[in-house]
Design a protein that fits this description.
This protein is an alpha+beta fold and 575 residues long. The protein has a domain of 203 residues: Rossmann fold (3-Layer(aba) Sandwich), CATH 3.40.50.300. 55% of the residues lie in helices and 18% in strands. The protein is built from 16 helices and 17 strands. It has a six-stranded antiparallel beta sheet. Helix 2 runs antiparallel to helix 3 and helix 12 crosses helix 13. The radius of gyration is 49 Å and the shape is elongated. The model has no long low-confidence stretch (mean pLDDT 85).
Length: 575
């Protein structure tokens, strides 16, 4: 809802401030008084293009400020996107300089001009000449209106459809991933198969290279090793120009045992020598075993060298250690097994996809048919509404379209785009004259006729249309009497659920206003300026009388104006 409008130095406006009210706000005044300038100023706040010619003569800039009570969740979301703190009211300002610069602010924060349009389209609809702020002109909004008219039935179907569609997207991602894996796997299959065969034929075993390296060292140094072992054994058993070590120890033991009866303390020393004797005997036995193991075999040495060379080439080729190669061989087997299983996985996912698409189509067709039913009812209601507004030649239709998409779904003989809300693309079409083709709402010529058409539509969709403020200009062009009365009554009914601003020359419409503002020109300090006044009841009587009688206002005119206002009040009280 538009709470307040401040305008400075815009055309004939020097400095005005208007506090708008809930319900129906009517703006009246002589032609040229500045009513349209006020509507233009709201348009500028909503992002309309500005010309420096709009700046009042003698001023350096024009300034507009609008204060809104924000109710629209869509508007709140956009406000948050621009990093603007949420407050109870939204203050939008725009300054236009003689240099052609624009400074736009929302709650004091500088924003681009596009921000005004993005936020404004969810807060105000303007139906006036050259104005393009009607969200109703956006065909994407038409489907939303249709669905909200369908209430719970549509909501339930859409929720189910969204769940299915999200699952379809997920399955599609999984299938694409699997197909990519398959494509890459097929390129790897031959290499992996070759590597598998190569590694299996290598008969690798853990730590084999280390074991072979030890064996190689023994074989290469076998002569030196043998000499050392034989020397050690001979010293133990045969001696070297002296008694063998074991024989010497045996004699030492005999000598000490002969005196052990005299020296009890010598037993510990004797036991130590005996332990050494037995240990050396065991060592001598081990040396014999080592000697028997040493068998220099040139052929075996060649085989060890060849095997080690083969293993080194293999490790270098794969850039892995022997143990890593053994592990990699197992990984290859797993990869090849996975490749074989990919086709099966893809088929399983394709089967899931087909099942989901069947469910999707079933729900999407139900939703499509339900929307058709809602559209048919909407068409009848709007045409009836237009007849009441003396517009019998007007045709209104809800057009259902599909968008071609070769990757879409097959419906009614063509491939069409689809999404979480189904496959319908809806647009409201209208023809204002008999015999003329139906056209989109945005193609209607502006003026009173188009405003009345918009009023008829808004009146029917009032319960689901979320725009909190509607502005009508020229809605009474070319009508009067009973038709003007009906237009006024419908404006009042629409205004029961939202704020309506209406610029009018019709006394019938003016009488039904909840608030009445008079716009007029005055001369101040030899300058013509526009001023605005909110009228009391008595001043409303005078203004309605002026609208009825023009320059010749009689007591009868005053009396009739008073009666019209009284009758309008009775209508409002009973409706």
């Amino acid at each position: 809802m538009l709470l307040k409008l401040n305008v400075k130095n815009l055309a004939l406006i020097e400095d005005i401030s208007i506090d708008f009210k809930p319900g129906l706000n009517v703006l009246t005044g002589e032609t040229g008084a500045g009513k349209s300038i006020l509507i233009d100023s709201i348009g500028l706040i909503l992002g309309d293009r500005a010309s420096t010619e709009l700046i009042r003569t003698g001023a350096e800039n024009a300034y507009i400020e609008a204060v809104f009570d924000v109710r629209s969740e869509e508007a709140k979301n956009i406000i948050r996107e621009y990093g603007i703190d949420e407050e109870e009211t939204l203050i939008i300002t725009r300054e236009i300089t003689l240099q052609g610069k624009n400074f736009c602010r929302i709650n004091g924060k500088l924003v681009p001009l596009s921000a005004l349009k993005n936020i404004g389209r969810y807060m105000v609809d303007i139906f006036a000449q050259h104005q393009t702020y009607q969200l109703l002109f956006d065909s994407e909004y038409h489907l939303k209106i249709l669905d909200e008219l369908g209430e719970k039935k549509v909501e339930t179907l859409k929720k189910e459809l969204k769940i299915i569609f999200e699952k379809i997207k997920e399955i599609n991602r999984e299938i694409k991933t699997l197909l990519k894996e398959k494509s890459e796997a097929e390129k790897l299959r031959d290499r992996l198969s070759f590597e598998k065969e190569e590694l299996e034929n290598a008969f690798l075993s853990p730590e084999e290279d280390k074991i072979l390296e030890e064996e190689r060292e023994i074989l290469v140094n076998s002569e030196k090793i043998m000499k050392s072992l034989i020397l050690a054994e001979s010293l133990l058993y045969e001696g070297n120009d002296s008694l063998p070590v074991l024989e010497l120890l045996d004699k030492i033991i005999d000598a000490l045992e002969g005196i052990s009866t005299y020296f009890k303390d010598i037993d510990r020393t004797l036991n130590t020598i005996k332990e050494s004797y037995y240990s050396l005997q065991e060592a001598a036995s081990d040396l014999r075993k080592f000697i028997n193991r040493i068998d220099f075999n040139p052929e075996r040495l060649d085989r060890v060298f060849d095997r080690l060379s083969f293993l080194e080439r293999l490790k270098k080729k794969y850039g892995m250690s022997l143990n890593e190669l053994i592990k990699y061989k197992d990984e290859i087997n797993k990869k090849l097994e996975d490749i074989l299983n990919l086709d099966e996985k893809i088929e399983i996912k394709n089967s899931e996809y087909r099942s989901l698409m069947e469910r999707y189509m079933d729900n999407a067709i139900k939703l499509h048919n339900l929307r058709k039913e809602i559209a048919e009812k909407l068409e009848k209601k709007i045409l009836k509404e237009l007849e009441e507004l003396a517009m019998k030649g007007v045709q209104f239709s809800v057009d259902f379209k599909f968008k071609d998409d070769m990757e879409g779904i097959y419906f009614e003989g063509q491939k069409i785009a689809y999404g979480e809300d189904g496959f319908d693309f809806v647009e409201f079409l209208i023809s204002t004259n008999t015999g003329e083709p139906l056209k989109p709402l945005s193609k209607i010529a502006s003026g009173g006729e188009s405003s009345r058409i918009m009023l008829a539509i808004k009146n029917i969709i009032a319960d689901v249309d979320k725009i909190p403020c509607l502005i009508f200009d020229e809605i009474d062009t070319g009508i009067g009497g009973r038709t003007a009365q009906i237009v006024g009554e419908k404006l009042y009914k629409v205004a029961k659920n939202r704020q309506v601003l209406c610029v009018t020359h019709s006394p019938q419409i003016a009488c039904l206003g909840d608030a009445h503002f008079q716009i007029k020109k005055i001369v101040k300090d030899n300058k013509t300026i526009t001023v605005v006044e909110e009228l009391t009841f008595e001043k409303r009587v005078e203004e309605v009388a002026r609208m009825l009688g023009g320059t010749q206002i009689t007591s009868n005119t005053i009396q009739y104006a008073r009666e019209m206002l009284t009758m309008a009040q009775r209508f409002k009280e009973s409706n």
